[in-house]
Amino acid sequence: MVTSIRVAVVDDHPLFREGVAHTLERSNTVRIVGQGETADDAIRIAQTENPDIMLLDVSMPGSGLKAADTIARACPNIKIVMLTVSESEDHVHQALASGARGYILKGTSGNELVSTLRLIARGEHYVTPTLAARVLVTAQRSPRTAAPDEPFPELTRREEQILDRVASGLTNREIAKSLQIGEKTVKHYMTSIMQKLRVRNRVEAALAFRKRG
């Protein structure tokens, strides 16, 4: 028997929130354990229900980004996902820096949302591919801020191949298929990469790599 993913949905638009909750529960792989409208609601639900995944809007009373930061510190086992209309690159950076595991735009379909939550529940990070690509392109065009002689961890050729595919928005499973290696092997490489680059997620890893050329 497959264990349901316990999800809380916090958004200050009741019709949208209830629609998301209904769509997720219809998938038979998600159980909604809490709903709320504000950052305070999100923190309370995190503490009382301890969901596997918490969906937060960026723009809601009290700030979804501030709620993400508080929850990530107090309940690090909860996987935080931003579900928002905001395509701001600053919001993407802030969300990931706050501890969010995912950044999904509200235009996604119900099936895509369920599939993405399954990936995140398995431990992966996810940013809507178009946004991830845009953030990386911006980073490539921005002047380097690091000192020329600042040491940068040496990556293996395989690690570089994996980061290139991460930058293209591929999941671990897709990277594994592309390189004809196991998905667990990709996860092992990603852990090594993030440790070497001292980052917390896939997008930050790709950003650090691209900035150093």
Task: Note the beta-strand portion.
Answer: 5-15%
Terminal CA distance reads 47 Å
Instruction: Give the % helix.
Output: 40-55%
Number of domains: 2
Write the H/E string, N to C. EHEHEHEHEHEHHHHH
Low-confidence stretches: 143-151
List keywords for this structure.
single chain, 213 residues, alpha/beta, Rossmann fold, Arc Repressor Mutant, subunit A, six-stranded parallel beta sheet, 6 strands, 53% helix, globular
Plain-language structure description:
It is a single chain. This protein has 213 residues and is of the alpha/beta class. It folds into 2 domains: 5-127, Response regulator (Rossmann fold, 3-Layer(aba) Sandwich); 144-211, Orthogonal Bundle (Arc Repressor Mutant, subunit A). 53% of the residues lie in helices and 14% in strands. Strands 2-1-3-4-5-6 form a 6-stranded parallel beta sheet, with helices on both faces. α3 links the parallel β3 (53-56) and β4 (79-84). The N and C termini lie far apart (47 Å).
Explain briefly what this protein structure is:
The chain is α/β, with parallel strands linked by helices and 213 residues long. The chain has helices at 14-26, 39-49, 64-74, 89-97, 110-121, 129-141, 157-167, 172-179, 183-197, 202-211; strands at 5-10, 30-36, 53-56, 79-84, 102-105, 126-127.
Question: How is the secondary structure organized here?
Answer:
Elements: E1 5-10, H1 14-26, E2 30-36, H2 39-49, E3 53-56, H3 64-74, E4 79-84, H4 89-97, E5 102-105, H5 110-121, E6 126-127, H6 129-141, H7 157-167, H8 172-179, H9 183-197, H10 202-211
Parallel strand pairs: 1-2, 1-3, 3-4, 4-5, 5-6
